[in-house]
Structure formats: structure tokens, C-alpha cells
Amino acid sequence: MLVREIILENFMSYEYARIPFRSGVNVVCGPNGAGKSSILLGMSVALGQSYTERSRKLSNLIRWGKDQARVTIVLDNSPRKGKRPVKRFNRDQVFLTRVLRKDGKYWFELDNRAATKSEVRRLLAKFNIDPENLLIIMHQNMTEQFTVISAEEKLRIVEAAVGLESYRRNVLRAKKKLSRILSQEESVGKLLESAEQTLNYWREQYDRYQQKKQLEIKRRFLEREFVWAEATKKEAVMKNVETQLRDEERELQQIQSDSKTVTTELDELQLKLEQSKSSWQKLFQERMLLERETVKNETTLSLRSQAIEEMRQVFNDYREKASECVIMVEQLETSFLPENGSIYAERLMEIKKAYKSLESMWVKQLKQKSESLKEITQTHYEEAEKTGKHLLETQLNTERITGEIDALTDRVIDSKIKSALLAYRKQNVEKHIQKLQRELRVKTAEFKQSAKKAEQIGSRIASTRILTQILDEIRMTDGYLTSLGDVSEDIERMYESYSKLYLELKEKARSVAENREKALEEVNIRTEAWQKIMQELLDDVSLQYERILSQAHGVGKVGLVNKRDIEAAGLEVLVGFKGAKPVPLDAYTQSGGERSMATMSFLLALQQHVQSPFRAVDEYDVHMDPRNRETITNLLIESIEGLNSQYLIITPSQITFADKPVTIITVQNVEGASKVQEAV
Questions:
Q1: Of 272, 301, 458, which is closest to residue 374 (Cα–Cα)?
Q2: H/E element holding 657?
Q3: Half-sphere exposure of residue 537, counting CA atoms within 13 Å on the CB side?
Q4: 475: exposed, middle or buried (C-beta count within 10 Å: 0-12, 13-18, 19+)?
Q5: Confidence band (pLDDT; 50, 70, 90) for 69?
Q6: What is the pLDDT of residues 434-451, one digit of tens each?
Q7: Which are the contacts of 604, defined by CB distance < 8 A and separation ≥ 6?
Q8: Are 601 and 541 in contact (CB under 8 A)?
Q9: Can you tell me the distance from the alpha carbon of 76 to that of 78, in angstroms, rounded to the nearest whole number?
Q10: Each residue of 534-562: pLDDT tens digit?
Q11: Closest C-alpha among 546, 649, 664, 660 to residue 143
Q12: Looking at the chain, which terminus has fewer C-beta neighbours within 10 angstroms, N or C?
């Protein structure tokens, strides 16, 4: 049981009424205008049903002449299987009130405390009741409305009534998720396509940027190569100057060594020359003496030889007398030499005179003198021979020393020439060395400056190319760089950003595709579960529906249409009376009584599956004939037997409930005010 009592205060035709309800069927009956439907309307207002708010202003429901109305429903919160439906209310009754005021202010109260509509909704959910469901609370003409609503709406109402909304929600949630994923996949696909196009653009730009970076690296390398090539060139010039300087220094050392050698040699030669000249001078003097002595010896020997010969001639002449003297003279005459003719002639005359004057004395002494003269002559001859030999040796030594002097003189001259040449060469070499040293200092400074500049650019590299080749390549590289002048450093960041975005989108697309497959699988699984549970439900309901209709001589069937698409799926209720073939229940094909009979038959067939503990229907039997009215009423009472449910039936008809567990509530209008009388 859900509702224990409803209290109406200044609501419509009621001033104040307390209407108790019991489990099972509660029938509100009475004449038209007595206020029967106001009870159900009051319950709808208290439960927050939108039906009443759409149909009229709530302030119009306040009793005429009053400023405020109150509708209170006493809900049963007694334990069920040891648990209360609403745990926060630790009592058996919960008072739900709706206050209406003329000024248009309305509010809910829970146990006399203000509450929001959402709180009321949560409270009712604890009791498993949905006041908005057409099959739970069916006001006047709603049986007709059930035939008008679409098959899709019928199915949703049934799902809500039997508590299978979760299956639909699961399917719809899965489909919504799938739709969201599909939309996301489409969006990601478009974004991926756009990102790919953008990435292709930025990739082209990035390639140009990389080309520019490579060219810049190459440019820096070429610049580095150029400055180091220039430094290397200057270093080569410097080293060449160093080599020349070393060569010149070695040459200077050689010249100095040669000069020292030549000077030493010259000193030695000059010393030898002086010695040779001194020896030559001595030999010359000795030669002069020897020649003088030789001449003297020759003269002496010649005179002595002549004297000897004269004495011999005189002696012979005197010995042979006059003839011998003549012969001696003739011999003397024959022995004259042409170069000494005058001397010999004179001497001959002297001899002749001496012969005559000294003939007697000379003859005596001639022999003695001749012997003495021979001895002296022999001695002089030996001395002359010895002197001649000595002179010859002296001449030979003089000639030898003269040759030596000439050779030494030539060598001295050569040495002096060499010394002069070496001095000249030394002077030139020293000047060249000084020049090379100055040049080396300049070239060293240029190299150091160039090397320092090059080191600032980068470490040293070797290059085999000449500067013009490197410079030409630098100019060509600069030309390429100029053509890439519009390429900025932001391109790398943009490319990396879009690459990352593209990869993220690609991964996102893959993930979304996986999610789509999972979501599609989930949709299929949940749809199959929904189809299965709904098919099982409707198969059972259809059997009950056919059974109930058969008691009114009708046939029918309940089934799903478009069950593959849950949003397009609907509940098809087929009915046929008087032997007619079952056709869909609608507002045009069947009569009012047939529509009411088919609708109530369907509601009764559904009773065993409805979860709500409270149900209400207002004037369901208006268009029914008495027989069908009795049949439906009896079936209704039977359908809820054994269920812990309440059923509120509002009917203006006179129905007999003999031996039926039904609570009768009679409503009458007395002097403009509705009065309630409960009957058991």
C-alpha cells in the first residue's frame, strides 16, 4: 500500500475532507459533479504531476472565495521486509503536502517542512511511483488518449510502468554514447583531415626550414672553413717565412762557419806565405852569395887555370926553348874564347913581357908555383864544384819556394775572395734574415689574429680547397638562404605542435574507433537485452490480453514494431470484435466502447508486471455496455489479488461488487460542498 489517506482543504469543491485508502481496489463512486475526479486531481497536484499544471492554473483549483488550498497525502512508510521505503523518515507515515495560493505561489511540504519538487520526485522514487506515467494515473479521457498516442509513446509508457526503463536508458545511453562517439569520430576525422592538410603544409615548410637549417649549418661550416682556410693560408705563409728564416739562419751559420774556416785558412796561408817568403829571401840571399862566390870561384879558377897554363907554357917554352913558347902561345891563341878575347890578349902580352922579364926567375919558380897553383886550383875547383852544387840546390829550393809562394799567394787571394764573398753573402743574409724576422712577426701576428677570429667561430678544421672555391660556395649558399628568407624559426615549433596534434588526433581517432566498436557492441548487447526482455514481457502480456479480450468476444495481440531501432520501436496493440480481424487500436477504427474495452484489457494484462504500488483510473467505463463494465471490473479486482497494491477506480456507474474485496468511497455534493462517505 502507498496512500493511507488524502486530505483536501479548500480544494475545488471540498472545504475539508479526509479520504482513507486501503490496499486493493478503492472505488470512488457518486453522481456526476459530486467531486469524484477532484480526489484524483488533488492527488496529482500533491504528487507534482505535470498533467494538472498543463491543463489549468493551479490557483484555479482553490475553492471559490478562499485564498489558499492544501492537499496532503499520507504515505505509508511502514517497513517492508524489515526496511522502510524512506529511511530518513523513521516512522510509518510521511506527510506530503502541496500548498496553493491565489497569488500564484505554490510549494511542497514534507512533514510540514518546505521541500522542492526534485525532493518530492526522489521521495516518490523511493516508493517506486511515477505520477507522470499514463498507465499509473489515468485521468478522465486518458483511456481515449492512450489510443491516440503513438506506438513509440505507448512502448515508453509500458516500459516506465513495468520498471524496464533502465533497459531503454541503457540502450539510449549506449546509443547516445555511440552517437557521441560517432560525432566525435566524425569531428576527429575532420580535425585529423584538416590537421593532416595543415601538417602537410607545415611539413613542407618544415622541410624548407630543415633545408634552411642545413644551409645555415653549411654556411657556418663554410664560414668556419673559410676563416680557418684563411688562417691556414696565413699559417702556411708564416711557416714558409719561418722555413726561409731557418734556411737563411742555417746559411748564415754556414757562412759564419765557412768564414771562420776561410779566416783560419787565410791566416795559416798568410803565415805559410810569410814563412815561404822569409825562406825565399834567405835562399835568395844565399843564392846571391853563392852566385857571387861561384863567379868569384870561376874567375879565380879561370885566372888560376890561365896562370897554370901560362906557367906550363912558359915552362914548356923554356923547356922546349922558344918553339915551345911559340907553341904555347899558339895554344893559348887557339884557346881564346870569343867573349874573353880582349882579356886573354892582354894577358898574353903580359905573359910575353913577363916571359922576357922574368924568364930566369920564373923558370926557377915555375915548377914550384905550378905545383902550388895546381893544388890551390884543385882546391878552388872542388870548392867551386861544391858551391855550384849548393847553388843548384839553392836554385831548385828557390824555384820550389817561389812556386809555393805563387800557390800560397793564389790561395790567399782565393781565400780573400772567398772571405769577401762570404762577408758580402753574410751581409745580404743578415739583411734578409732581418727582413724575414720582420715579415715573420707580421705574418705571425696576422695568423694569430686570424686564428683567434677563427677559434671564435669554431674549432679548427682542415680544408684542401682554396679560398676562392670556398667563397664561391658561400655566395651560392647565401643565394639559397636568401630564397628561404621567409622561413622563420617558428616553423619548427608549429610543425612539432601540429605533428604532436596530428599524432594525438590519430591516436584519438584510433581510440575513438575502438570506443565506437565497443559502443556499437554495447548498443547491440543492450539492444538485444532490451529486445529479449521486452519480447518476453509482451509475449506474456499478449497472452493475457488475448485471454481478457476473449471474455468480451474479442481477439487481439500485443507486439513490438521496429524492434531493431529502439527509438523507432513501438507497442502495437491489435484488437478485433465480433469476428473481425485484429487491427491496430486507434481513435478512428474502433468505437468508444471498443477502445475502452481494448485499453482496459491491455491495462489488466499488464497488471502483474507493473511495479508501482498505486494505480488510478478515472471513468474508464464511460463508453462500455453494462456487461463489459462488469467483466472489466471483475477482471480488475482479480488482477491485483495477492499484490500489495492499491487501485483507485473512479466511476459514475452503478456496479455491484458482491463478495469482492473492494473499498467503496461514495462522494456527494451537499449544498455546494463535496462530502465523502466510506463504505466497506
A1: 301
A2: none
A3: 23
A4: exposed
A5: very high
A6: 998 898 899 899 888 888
A7: 544, 548, 632, 635, 636, 639
A8: no
A9: 6
A10: 889 889 989 988 988 888 788 999 999 98
A11: 649
A12: C
